[in-house]
């Protein structure tokens, strides 16, 4: 028995090492490429090679990126953070509620699901959307871009929520009904806490979508004071020459907040499980 | 009982999301459908009926575009579902450094298409690229990943899987984590092994996650073009054009009515594929 | 406990937002109407990412002291994407106070008489060179001033290789081909192909326009009207043939892997003496200098020659125009700013801080002594009048797929005749979209 267990643990270890190596090879090498080139001189980085830099320009490159255009990057961080945080808060509340009803109801709700899917299929119509925003007096404002981003991320979050609401047994709702719960209490006190793993997942994935959105920010949130992080990449690309070292330094800098967010919520996904498992 | 149930699932819950979705997305989209039948400069328009649709179907690379779109979406869905599930199973098993590994797998999701395109352009370089160097090392010939018209779309699809598998993995992890622990316990007591756990517990019970990944990856694959644009620009020539990149080129040329018509066509194309798939996988969900 | 941690997350996020906000959020909005005298005015200036703003920034700094008018630059993407940004903002009335946009036919597509301020009464009008003024004049108005020096299309070449092999600047296409063959025989790359940056595939055709307009003087007019096409005009078809002859379909002068070579790598090949020729625009010179400061003086330029019918001349990309938006609330301030920019002092500050990539189109502005060697080589052609504006400045018809078509032609996958025909069809779609009948 113990020999068997030892054999198994050896096999697990081998699998673990193999898996780690493969992951490092496939995902680590490109990451290393971006990182190492962000520390080279522009001449060296223009060659786009994997090699070690001849001289480390870490401070010079990252310093230049942070201070470029009177600290435009910091302003962009601020703007992107405001938009991302409030979009996600709004998104989590409205999508979980909608998905709960869409998953539980029969009949008409089934057809509404197709309407939700439509949001994934068509890109936003730029000029008509601007007209709507202007008509509401929301163009170039934080509320405007937050509502818009919520509308554009709605389908993705709603579909995820819907799938996971389906895993929560309906008996729970019925028990709550017998206990005299109203719909609001049922949802916010019983269902929503059970959705924590998927909520964490949606926070991570939707934050990235909003934070990394460049096209919509470009059209729907224009102006120099409205810079967002992805637009700062445009300082370093152009038809006539790309400064890869600065571009990559900028790429690294702007993905740090999301990486931290991911590491933090990644743990939530796990801890949600234990809570759910006990109840299930 | 049913009537009672529906009282618990009040349609008012749909209102906040519904209003935002309608006002900021559906309404402007419907408005744009009108412009698909116009000659449109953004400031002026003139009604021309279905002429844009006819012109769109005459686009030079349209057939290649349809073929590539289907190939790209098919490859992306298959790759993301299989790899995403395998990586998720691996990363939810009892390994030590899973937090670090999860971050590494997820990292590509965080970086912009420009950086991904530049990176893989280098890795896939025909003579200096590390991929070909690796192939040569084990005695295989070099491949012109992005320069060979027959291969370019495949190479972009591969890169898309690389970039997007992190999303699939995270969704699968959430799905696997939602599986109640007692099932696994029960199987262990019965003496089941890892493969049986995968076959009889993880696979069937992570169905909701799998359905979500399939539908999201499918629609994304049919519509996505930012990597195509960043890596090949639709080239060499037109060999890696997808429908969305054809539309984008028209849009970029200022053909706004034509590009809108293209979007309407793309929408119907995607809907014709995605709606039946959605219906099919959700029926399975109920059967379970 | 769980609830607590969720609250702490959101408050931590909000806190960090607040902290960043303190350091970054200083944007005061400008609402001063006239901008007269002492009241400070802030102007927004929309420029493409490909614009080298060093010269403009220096002028802006001086202008702020002089006029109390400050300028913030709003960076947009370049290329077609950027054109759409501009069109969208114009259509929705949300354009910046000032902007930079292409002169010529492309400017015509965004309705200058309606969208921009007429500058024809301004004092500096006479200083603008006539052939530039034509590209920014519509109806009775003149709507823009040059935002920089001119930009020239031709063949950049490596002087060291030319000296080593004893080559001379070619006067005819055949001589160019002979030079390239000599370079190839000597073991260097004859011509850089950097098709990864797909817009570069167009240069052998676009920079050949000087020759086209010499041989077929009415081509632009007839082309716009739909009476002449690339495929049935021998002089224009010849441009496609030249693009074909360079690649593997013809003499195979490109580097191996030209499909995967990036623009940066291509410039490096030319600068370091790995390759002898690169068909390009002179506005790449600053980038070459950034990456290869020692070698940039070693790079020369000559025009793409014809088949001996006439002396070679340069195809010139006119500088983009600085425009003032009609919908701006600070029109007077913007006019003052442009006046300062066009003054002798303004232009001197500009030329000192800008890397001139070609001769200037404002009278009295000389290319500085420290200008690139290649730029100095262009001056005689300008003095002798051996220049012509590129086709896109004289005809609004430019199909969207020219880069892709020329990557097929240059790569040897498509014959020049097929390419020209395909491009004519492509341009037909453009003509339809522009509402030009009979194309």
UniProtKB/TrEMBL annotation, chain A:
SUPFAM superfamilies attached to this UniProt entry: MetI-like (SSF161098)
The keyword Hydrolase is annotated on this UniProt entry: no
Keyword terms: Cell membrane, Membrane, Transmembrane, Transmembrane helix, Transport
Main location: membrane
Gene3D superfamilies reported for this sequence: MetI-like
GO CC annotations on file: plasma membrane
Source organism superkingdom: Bacteria
InterPro entries xref list: MetI-like (IPR000515), MetI-like_sf (IPR035906)
Family statement: Belongs to the binding-protein-dependent transport system permease family.
Protein name: Raffinose/stachyose/melibiose transport system permease protein
Organism ancestry: Bacteria, Bacillati, Bacillota, Bacilli, Bacillales
From TrEMBL, chain B:
Keyword set, alphabetical order: Cell membrane, Membrane, Transmembrane, Transmembrane helix, Transport
Subcellular location: Cell membrane
Keyword Cell membrane tagged: yes
Keyword Oxidoreductase found: no
Ranges for domain ABC transmembrane type-1: 66-277
InterPro entries referenced in this protein's UniProt entry, alphabetically: ABC_transporter_permease, MetI-like, MetI-like_sf
GO biological process, one term: transmembrane transport
Membrane topology (UniProt): Multi-pass membrane protein
Parts of the chain that traverse the membrane: 12-35, 70-92, 104-124, 161-180, 255-278
GO terms for cellular component: plasma membrane
Cited PANTHER family: ABC TRANSPORTER PERMEASE PROTEIN, INNER MEMBRANE ABC TRANSPORTER PERMEASE PROTEIN YCJO
Protein family per UniProt: Belongs to the binding-protein-dependent transport system permease family.
Entry protein name: Raffinose/stachyose/melibiose transport system permease protein
Organism name: Salibacterium halotolerans
From TrEMBL, chain C:
UniProt cross-references to Pfam families, sorted A to Z: SBP_bac_1
Keyword Cell membrane: yes
SUPFAM superfamilies: Periplasmic binding protein-like II
Keyword Cell membrane belongs to the record: yes
Region (Disordered): 416-439
Keywords, comma-separated and alphabetical: Cell membrane, Lipoprotein, Membrane, Palmitate, Signal
PROSITE patterns on file: PROKAR_LIPOPROTEIN
Coiled-coil regions listed: none
InterPro entries: Bact_solute-bd_prot1, SBP
PANTHER family named among the record's database cross-references: ARABINOSE-BINDING PROTEIN-RELATED (PTHR43649), POLYGALACTURONAN_RHAMNOGALACTURONAN-BINDING PROTEIN YTCQ (PTHR43649:SF33)
Protein name as annotated: Raffinose/stachyose/melibiose transport system substrate-binding protein
Organism: Salibacterium halotolerans
